[in-house]
Amino acid sequence: MKISAVILAAGHGTRMLSSIPKVLHPLMGKAMLHYSVDAASAATGSKPVIIIGYQAELVQQTIGESAQYAIQDPQLGTGHAVQQAEDLLRDKADLILVITADMPLLTERTLRQVLNAHQSTGDQNTPITMLTVNTVEPRGFGRVRRDQEKRVIGIVEEAQATPEQLTIQELNTSVYCFDADWLWEALLRIPLSPKGEYYLTDLVGTAIADGMSVQAVSLEDPEEAIGINNRVHLAEASAVLRERINRSLMLGGVTLIDPGATYVEAGVQVGQDTVIWPNTYLHGDTLVGRGCNLGPNTIIRDSHLGDNCRVLSSLLEGARLDDEVDMGPFARLRKGAHLGRGVHMGNFGEVKNSYLGPGTKMGHFSYVGDTTTGPEVNIGAGTVTCNYDGEQKHHTEIGAGAFIGSDTMLVAPVRLGEGARTGAGAVVTRNVSDYTLAVGAPARSIRKLEKK
Question: Which among 233, 364, 394, 395 is annotated as catalytic?
């Protein structure tokens, strides 16, 4: 059967007290809405239709072409929201899965259970399968009403529930699977609420009034039903996702010394036998190879690390490490930094938009910017590439096997040849030839060196 999903994401989310839509608030590195889109796409095998309203253009820009869009304007309730998808889905889907964008913890597995349960009935007299959860924490959800034979007969919203109904622990999660043909017709018969809105929950009563039945599937993990209405809920959902991610890493062969003190965002990849120490944060588009040792107190963002790297108490942003790089403590790599295989970078060093060739050693208290080095270069402590002249950035090139003395200033643009050396405190303003020693301020080439 052809299945499509509709994700309700038109609301403002006023309780977030924010200028951006609730569904775009970040959650473990991704906008909240991304989780609903990913789960719905995986469960149905098709692009979902997102119902958008508040800051619709921003939502579309964030999610992009991974979904279709329908605009709800004005916003007249959840039933009215689903109606906006009819033009896109009528006669194109047999089943319609409806979920809300503020429940990002719902998994593909759970959504498949709802779809499979609905399909397994094989009964046209059951046009709705809904997902319920049994919990003592109501979280503002409606209560599921059943008759003496335990059949679903309706949903009562928390605000309208009687004291007796408020004791019901079976709650409506607002996840539904509908027979498409029945849905489009039934939406036209939803009564107008006292608030002037049309509620999707009233479809349960519509089906019962038509002499049909409603099937309920019970959610196995109540944590999936955490809906986000404020920043407290956002933190609760973040904690659940963080535990899921860390558990998945450990089951995949990664050692987390203290999972509770380790933050790894969704989408980060970590290879087997890597060890992550406490207070380490992996953000964004980050890929870590096998056998690495990260932390403690390390932040890595949008960076790719090869195998067997060691990063101690350092900050990496937009960087690349080849295999067997050793850096830290207190080192920093800025955007465009690329350390070749076996590079060692000491404490309080900084590299920006530069390539350090294989086997290069960069001493402590050094800055290398807009620079390319060959292999096996030694960069002495306190070395600075003076790459900015106040108006433009300039490039420095250092040849293979060069030896840069401590406190050397390399005033770009400048080139040091293969095997060249500088004396301590040299201020290099002119190119230095291969296998040549330059000393002084400004530096002068004083003699040729033996080629090794």
Answer: 364
